[in-house]
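Quick one, T. Sequence first:
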Amino acid sequence: MLQVIMNDILGTPAILIGLFALAGLLLQRKSSADVVSGTLKTVMGFVIIGAGATVLIGSLDIFGDMFDHAFNVQGVIPNNEAIVAAAQSQFGTSTALIMVFGMVTNIVLARITPFKFIFLTGHHTLFMACLLAVTLSVGGLEGAPLIITGSIILGLCMVLFPALLQPYVRQITGSDDFAVGHFGSIGYFVSANVGKLVGDKEKTTEEIKVPKSLGFLRDTSVAVSLTMVLFFFVVALFAGQDYIETTLSGGSNFLVFSFIQAITFAAGVFIILAGVRMLIAEIVPAFQGIADKLVPNTKPALDVPTVFPFAPNAVIIGFLFSFFAGLLAMFFLPVLGLSVIVPGLVPHFFTGAAAGVFGNITGGRRGAMAGAFANGLIISFIPAILLVMLGDIGFTGTTFGDSDFGVVGILILSIMKLLGFA
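Structure tokens:
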């Protein structure tokens, strides 16, 4: 039963966020029609985001295969889903208990502290619970002390990271209706501060001047399509016609196949943005019920694509510069004696895009580029350092990807080592 609650209910973001919407609408004593409509649309918005992500990731996976073949890249690929799946046989029960009690701790902390955030990105809660179970075990804890310590740390992460970003989220959205609940927060925070140092927020990415003949680039979907077509074509030429047509395209011409995959990527972005708009339109008013009745003045902390519609150009710029930093880092990691971290396109797209939005709001175009570049370095070096600290328990071939997982894991292991536990 515990596994059903963790994996099928709390671990399914759409259901988790739908339950919060349902509770919020019931607490406001809305009509049955509004409750049903609001709950289902909230779930639908999240499902649409997931559908867009699936479309986008399918295209990125093909791009990744082409890239690996073209440049013969070998190393560790950060993938949260893969490492959590690998850890479940050994740390499944600890992960489940930390996740459940961590969510309870989140609500208690939101009630009694100034950090009024309810973290609603369920899959990231699961990933962080798994990281805590693994690192605390490596540090020597087990049983009840491990569960209690992990739950408290998870609850703290669920209120402190959204609080860290909220001043910038207010600038991005122009409101204080919701927060960002995503464990790439440190990368976004660094990006915003790098943007302040190097850029000018008046020169925003969303007002890039283009000649009238290139006016079609103002359409985000067109701009994304053309950018990805260029990316796919370049990599396809290096990967080779034979490889693509015999391995990936099922015999279709390699350039036609690459063109369709690039447009598929753009379609995925379009779907995600549509889902985000529906989700925000439903969850914010629904959540008001929880804020007013149970935990006054709280805000929902939502998945990071919620900031994408506020700066679509920064999304693409951020992705490209974060990925570029990941490519450069591959050459420096072995020099420092660290494992090569292969730049995963999925983490670089989602966290790089968000870092671009945060960098743009404080430093305009230069901020988006430099901030996303900094994020790319962070999600390359931090996972490599975490791998070293996990020692023999490090999972072969993969590791945690987004910045907060690595930083929290390294901090826990360092503190436990200082205290003599590890």
